[in-house]
Amino acid sequence: MALVHDFVVLDKVSYPYSKCDIVMKDIPYDVSIHDDFILYFMDYLKWIPTYSPIINTKRTGLDYYAITVFETEGAIQAYALFSNLINILKISPDILKLNGSFSYQLADDEDPFSDSDVYRIVRDSLKQKKVIYPRDKLIEKFEKLAQCFKRVIDSNGQLYVLHMGI
Hints:
Blueprint: E1 4-11, H1 20-26, E2 31-34, H2 35-40, H3 42-45, E3 49-52, E4 57-60, E5 68-70, H4 72-89, E6 95-103, E7 127-134, H5 135-153, E8 159-163
Antiparallel strand pairs: 1-2, 1-8, 3-4, 5-8, 6-7
Helix pairs in contact: 4-5
């Protein structure tokens, strides 16, 4: 199963924040973004004002594991971010080759030279994932997501974008 982040535009009257959990079962998502791209652009996503209905507080950034609400203020910044990312991607090669996350293997033996519990990485096991993806498909997904944020901006506070977490 692929790790994805699902986004949906919701009406505040029909789906108040207290009913966000219902959405997970009942409403089709507007767009799904693969986790590799969320992680790749996570530093930028941390700047966006959001709201967490779980802890009932305003914050900044995307809650990676749980639901995140983008109200108008956050939607304005998210729309600008994704619109600009789209423009950047338009000058990229047809096939994107991005640096992804790191992985490694831990040694299952004890370090003979240490008196403490120290985890050791198996030599030559450290690898960086390469994310290879068609540029136009990613642009299409980001355009759909940008349009979700644009709908919120144009709704006069009636809509919000819900991020479902991983």
